[in-house]
Amino acid sequence: MSDWIIPLIATGLSGIVTGSLAFASAVDTRSFLLHLSSSSASSEDQDEEEKKAADDDDGATGLIVKHFQVWWPCGRDWMVPLIGTTTLANLAAWFVASRSAGGSSSATASPSTWCWGAAATMIGLIGPYTGFVLMEDIDKLRTSSTEEVEVTTRRFCNLHHPRLGMALVGYGFALFGLASTKGLSGQGGGDRTPYITV
Length: 198
Known about the structure:
Layout: H1 2-44, H2 48-57, H3 59-100, H4 111-124, H5 126-143, H6 146-179
């Protein structure tokens, strides 16, 4: 029974990671960029007094900084445990797949086995990518002056999308691993036929 429950959980969690990052890429980063573009368009039509008043209110850049101060801690508190749990679930699915393949050296060549390892790797890489590539921009966007916000926001939004790519690839591996998992088509422990023959 656990031969298919753990892979099912790992695949579901991989889908949640992918969905979370898809929302951030499709909605949040787009919202940040739209705020910047509307701010730039309106500032071209303003005279000096209006520009000074807009600078006092911080406009869209101030909105982005204030939003980031709330958005990042909430996103971090959701994604860090989710990515860690998903990586561990994919590693557990790898263990189950290699055990059900007999633990022999042929187990590592099994699509079901290597897919779980690849899924764990791709999902697990999201954390270090965020820390090494995006963290400087995240810190700037939480504390920046208005001059830096526009450039930093555009760079952050562009660099956010590879995280979604990693999650999609990891989710694809998890789906393929789940499809290759033995025992999904049977009604008991006796049938060990793969759900999809690869």
